[in-house]
Amino acid sequence: MIAAPVTYQGAKHRYAAAIIDRIKPRFDEPFYDLCCGSGTVSIELVNRGFTPKLLYMIDSGPWGIFWHSIGKGLFNLNRFQKLLERIPDRPLIQNYARQLAKQPAHIDTPYVYLILQACAFGGKAIWIEDNRWKNTSFRSFWQPNGIAKRKSTVNPMMPMPDTLYERVKVICERMHGLHTCHCDVQDFGPNKGTVYIDPPYAGTTGYGDKFDVVAYASQRDCWVSEAKPLSTEAVLLADSKSRTRGGISGNRSSANEEWLSHFALGA
User: Fold this and answer.
1) Stretch 233-241: mean pLDDT, rounded?
2) What pTM did the predictor assign?
3) Is the peptide bond preceding residue 159 cis, with omega within 30 degrees of 0?
4) Would you call 217 helix, strand, or coil by DSSP?
5) What is the torsional sign of CA 191, 197, 200, 203?
6) Which of the residues 138, 145, 174, 235 has the least number of beta carbons within 10 Å of its own beta carbon?
7) Distance CA 205, CA 190 (A)
8) Which of 64, 267, 38 has the alpha carbon at shortest distance from 182?
9) What's residue 102's pLDDT?
10) In angstroms, rounded to a whole number, what is the distance separating the alpha carbons of residues 117 and 27?
């Protein structure tokens, strides 16, 4: 089975199956995953047997660079492994990520990005601006102290290097041949097929750019994920209220909502 490379804010790993079940895309037509991010919905499709040759993954951020390298067969696993081998022991990883984030973003971009994003505090999105890594705050290594309710260790990377390598290796093997565009989705006009959009949630850390998803979606037949309903044809996914936000203490305070809205052109 394929898994998303890293923990990522807003990723749909808990909802991808429900999203695909609701959309019911045809397996003989293209599927367009706009603002694809870590690709959890596309990965769910491929795990179900969808051919990458009919898959289009579009993202204007570093994820677009990563998926382009996967689709074109340009991702160098040997280079990635060498960079992963430089990562120090767990208590030192946070400082290592801080130093790595200071180098120009054009150096080893897809490989460094995966490492930085795996270390990102809360999985918040990291992006590139003026050849610099932006929104870089990183996890610290934490162990149970007898005070906090949380009883498990918090690693400074999610996942840790060995698991990250294995996940990416499987992605290289199973998702080669997909179509990608490292571009602004507003400049991309899908042809015949299913269109799914997962824009940055309102109220969360931005991705470095703005996107009026309702204006875009209203011009085509498509599906949109958000933390609120965006159309009259919107459904609250079944397991959205089963999980609430929480922190290192183990406490959770409020319910998440995950809505899937359908925009029907001409409706």
Assistant:
1) 77
2) 0.89
3) yes
4) helix
5) positive
6) 145
7) 27
8) 64
9) 98
10) 31
